[in-house]
Amino acid sequence: MTVVEMGHSVAAPFAGQVLADLGAEVIKIEKPEGDDARKWGPPFVDGAAATFQALNRNKKSVVSRLRDDADREQLLRLIDERADVVLQNLRPGQVDALGIGAAAMLARKPSLVYCNMGAFGARGPLAERPGYDPLMQAFGGIMSVVGHEGGASVRVGPSIIDMGTGMWAVIGILSALMRRKESGEGSVVDVSLFETATSWMTMHAAQYLASDELPRKVGSGQVGIVPYRAYQTADGELVVAAGNDKLFKAFCDAMGRADLAEDARFTSNPERVRNATALYAQIEAEMLRRTNADWQALLDARGVPCAPVQNARQMLEHEQTRALGIVQQVPGSSIPLIGLPVSFNGRRPQARSAAPSLGEHTDTITAQEEARQA
Questions:
Q1: DSSP H helix total and E strand total for the chain
Q2: What's CA 28's distance to the chain center, in Å?
Q3: What's residue 373's pLDDT?
Q4: pTM, to two decimals
Q5: CB 250 within 8 A of CB 301
Q6: How far apart, in whole angstroms, are the C-alpha atoms of residue 307 and residue 160?
Q7: Cα four-point dihedral sign 27, 112, 95, 374
Q8: What percent of the chain has a predicted confidence (pLDDT) above 70?
Q9: If phi over 0 gives left and psi between -120 and 50 gives alpha, with beta otherwise, what is residue 87?
Q10: Cis peptide bond upstream of 42, omega within 30
Q11: Helix or strand or coil: residue 93?
Q12: Which of 120, 130, 284, 286 counts the most CB atoms within 10 A of its CB?
């Protein structure tokens, strides 16, 4: 499969990289100054920002001036001759104005799968507005439930909206390709940052619709489940997920506080949710008495799920991360990168090449298309 990616920043490049990791030839179309993400640093590595390197491996880079008639005609020939998929997240309306939008391209090539990655969605009063991950975490309601009650709204650190939209794009594209295999017909796939944000609010939205009460900020906790959050210990933070009555009793046993499990305020999850403040005060005092390692040993012995709050270095160096081999050496890259989080028959797809330099493959791809025309 050949994918033409007219993408920038995070969402479309992440989708393109997933498809490339799965084996597709991905041709990244860039403006003369390159994808904006090339400059999103420091830190920089191998001539571009580390963020860009993390989102664009296994691709070919072609520079094209989309407003230039000759360049645009070359792009159209490339899509006509080679593309199975076009993936784009340019500003709303831009591809249609240039004659390379979904309707125009499927009219030229009915077997094409064309994926639009928008901000607010394909229709509605905000359809023409641009958007970015933090805007959608705000507009989609996510920031209203992240952080601590009474504190400022907090954005989730990883670009979950951009990367989530990339995942939905891949799911839609693969589904459209399967449909094409049966019917021979292409499809228009539409995904957006706002729709992804609303999907991450699935449980919070259901809780509001069922109770008419707005979900609150609960720090590291979870609305509707208690105890289910992080605690300060003698030397760090530990998340304990005692998500049912049996686990709660085991947690109390590990703390030496069987009385908490017998307290009428805490005997069932609904009661614990109603009396969370009182229960958490008791647990917090106990957790400060031991280290993370001590608590992990006690909780593991009783089958209570727990995990330390790790930083990036600790996560990357942990023996479990190493055992999975998800941090991969990439040919041509000075740093290893996180690989695809899926394996096939026990094998994870391996990176074939580092992110391309700007326009690295322009001459090669152009020569190939000229040869085809000849």
A1: 17, 13
A2: 20
A3: 79
A4: 0.94
A5: no
A6: 21
A7: positive
A8: 100
A9: beta
A10: yes
A11: coil
A12: 120
Assigned token pair, 121: 């969605």
Strand 44-45 and strand 25-30: the pairing is unpaired
Residue 92, CA distances (Å) to 128, 192, 347 in order: 5, 11, 39
Residue 145 · residue 153 · CB < 8 Å: no
List the chain residues with pLDDT less than 50.
none
CB neighbours of residue 261 within 10 Å:
17
CA atoms within 13 Å, Cβ hemisphere of 108 = 19
What lies within 8 Å, CB to CB, of 160 at 6+ separation is 133, 137, 142, 200
One-letter amino acid for residue 171 of the chain: I
Angstrom CA distances, 244 to 23, 205, 216, 223, 280, stand at 42, 22, 21, 14, 16
Distance of CA 204 to the CA centre of its chain: 19
If DSSP states are collapsed to H, E and C, what string results for 337-364?
A: EECCCCCECCECCCCCCCCCCCCCCHHH
Dihedral sign from CA coordinates of 327, 1, 106, 168: negative
∠ CA 367-371-374 to the nearest 5 degrees? Answer: 140
Phi and psi angles of residue 69, each rounded to the nearest 5 degrees, phi first: -60, -45
- Residue labelled with tokens 């799965």: 22
Closest CA to 280 of 234, 220, 235: 220
Compute φ and ψ for 354, nearest 5 degrees: -70, 170
- The tokens describing 175, both together, are 């589904």
Q: Kindly report the CA angle at 93 between 176 and 180, in degrees rounded to 5? A: 10
Environment class of residue 259 by beta-carbon count within 10 Å: exposed (0-12), middle (13-18) or buried (19+)? exposed
Q: How far apart are CA 35 and CA 58, in angstroms?
A: 16
**What pLDDT is attached to residue 144?**
96
Task: Please give the structure tokens belonging to residue 249.
Answer: 């009793």
Token pair listed for 292: 């993370």
